[in-house]
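Let's inspect a concrete specimen:
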Amino acid sequence: MATKWVYAFEEGSAQMRDLLGGKGAGAAEMTRAGLPVPPGFTITTAACNAYYAAGEQFPEGLWEQVIDALHALEAKTGKKFGDPNNPLLVSVRSGARISMPGMMDTVLNLGLNAETLQGLIARTNNPRFGYDAYRRFIQMFGKIVLDVDAEKFEEILERRKQMVGARLDTDLSADDLKAVAEEFMELVRRETGAEFPTDPYEQLRLAIRAVFRSWNSARAITYRDFHKIPHDLGTAVNVQTMVFGNMGPDSGTGVAFTRNPNTGERELYGEYLPNAQGEDVVAGIRTPHPIAMMAQEWPSVYQEFKRYADLLERHYRDMQDLEFTVENGKLYMLQTRSGKRSATAAVKIAVDMVNEGLITKEEAVQRIEPGQVEQLLHRQIDPSAKVHVIARGLNASPGAASGKVVFDADTAVAWSKNGEKVILVRPETSPDDVHGMIVAQGILTARGGATSHAAVVARSIGKPCVAGTETLKIDLERREFVADGIVVKEGDVISINGSTGEVIQGAVPMIEPEMTPELQALLGYADSIRRLQVWANADYPRDAEIARRNGAQGIGLCRTEHMFFETDRLPIMQEMILARDEATRKAALDRLLVFQKNDFIGIFRVMDGLPVVIRLLDPPLHEFLPDYEELLVEVTEARAKGVRTPEIERKEELLKAVAAMREANPMLGLRGCRLGLMFPEVNAMQVRAIFQAAVEVKREGVDVRPEIMIPLVGHVNELKIVREQLEKVAEEVMQEAGIRIPYKFGTMIEVPRAALTADEIAEYAEFFSFGTNDLTQTTFAISRDDAEGKFLLQYVERKILPANPFQVLDQAGVGKLMKLAVEAGRQTRPDIELGICGEHGGEPSTVAFCHRIGLNYVSASPYRVPIARLAAAQAVLAERVPVGV
């Protein structure tokens, strides 16, 4: 049986969207509902794919089916295609399954030539209309099908308008438009070396081919890449009887939305133009009228249109984007599809439609993309603003900011105190820069990736960050950087977009974030659906407050090392590291204990009644010491000059200590639980501080639930020994206070061996938390800070990897290790608590994976908690039978 490539509108339906595309399915559904739709037919998306599969040739039987469908149109309209007396004219439009506004091509008035033009003029008794339709057809067909530069057509039109003193296209007479059409024909002849095709059937064949080819135009491919739309869907082609909005003052064309696509308000929103054809509205040739004005200009048409708009919105149960034409006072509906909308509008429309009884809460949750929630929670660049992008890096932390460029953290603090807004620009950030990062509006780095220090800290404090901007040439001595040939000096204003990775010259208008009542309602729906709990990564009480305000149900990762980098603590930490005897080390640790205890008191108070997972010291000790190369240069220069001061002697001692601690690969060296085994007094101090803080807040009536996480365990014996050491400290503190605190000891699963031996490790761990940053690094054998700048992004661009594995969890590899660990851990300890605390914890596809493998919670940065709440609910709904249409 021959493949059916063509469907008349009355043969289709909304359920055939995959085959007929959005536009074709919409026209079919409106036809079935009895709305005034000009008759037509749709060539399927399958035909488009077959066209490409056949080397850009029509598949067998397609053209014959098109001719048959055309004859059926002739019968419905009483007109004949190519007939010089009563010509049938058609439009040829694209229509993909997923709406791609403006990305593909349309041809109107097809079927016109010198003979059919005279028939059109004779039947309408309107020469101006005829020549206007003709010049439009030559212009559109020439641009879209014959690849003639669109500007050259516009130049001819503008020249004619200037010649006759016409301000608008509508001011041109029939003779003017006839002359323009003749010049257009000559332009085509000159540019293509051939005559303009006059056979209507040849015009149709070439137009269908052009629409198929527009599926793979550069702009369409770029749009699909950005919106993650598959490239193998293909586009349908809709051939529809022309109705004319350019026949005079009682004709026109327009586009309208059933609700405001910017705000979500329940009102008709759109524009129309009298005496115009469809492209005039979007081309900006004339200023359109707001749709509300139609109520005065064409009151009966407006009421009819409003009735159809309400009917279609109720039918589809979603905000609709409508195209219409009015011909001699008669309304025709050309298109209905779900309308594109802003994040604010998407959330408001979804919640309003729940309240109106149009959709369920489950459907509302499914309709919102996690990225839209992210937009609402961070400052964004106004999408209507014109910007000059001078560099692109990694979109490391979402949001946008403008400010004066500063090149070091101290300057950032100083300028901020004077009321200046600053962007901290660094080759890469280190813990020494945190005080500057906190006061900056945003952070820009030349090196580092999505899980670099800059990215992790920026996300935790809610600051936008663009990292790994390798085209940025920073000169710290001259206090300037160069990007795209532009020199930006300290004090110059730039903007960064952490959601896209763009670096922009100058200040740009911003849209402020807002937790609207509608967003709160939507997240409430999500909470009633999801199974996964959502916790947060928070290192300070201020982070915990934001997390709790955003709906976090616990702290899944409190990184204690960040506490030691504070300016008042770092010298004590260095003193402890450099101590030559136990007494000196103990004295330093005793002073640090006071700070640690106060840190934990603050977090425990904020998280009253909720669990707090505290990771013991993880990084290598040398990270708390000055940079080896900088110290070496300073000491060497001093020696060469013969300088022998106490300060230089101290730095010489420091240099020896740093040199002794240097490691070829510190991320795989003396860190995590290994540090606790070699220097047990450090871990003991931390656990003592945790339990002393817990005892103190419990006396205040706080319900405190500490969970101590021992990092980088690779062998069960490491965990066994460290846990035994620390449990003694915990019991000692509680016995001294006469108070019992409920607590857990567990570990971070962040090396492959821990995942593979999770059954053994679970003997001594009451919880596992997957540290997917390091687990990804150790599974791939990739240094994340080096790889993202050097080759990883090219891997993604060249499709060697489907996504950056430090942003989107590698489910096939890292995910398989996680699944093994979950199953093995539960075999040993059925009630083991399982979570994820890497940066992946707020990424929607990772949240869905964590739901599927049965984790108890995901932990994300405080600002991504709402996104994870939504994604966790969507993971539940994805397992159910789809709801609604």
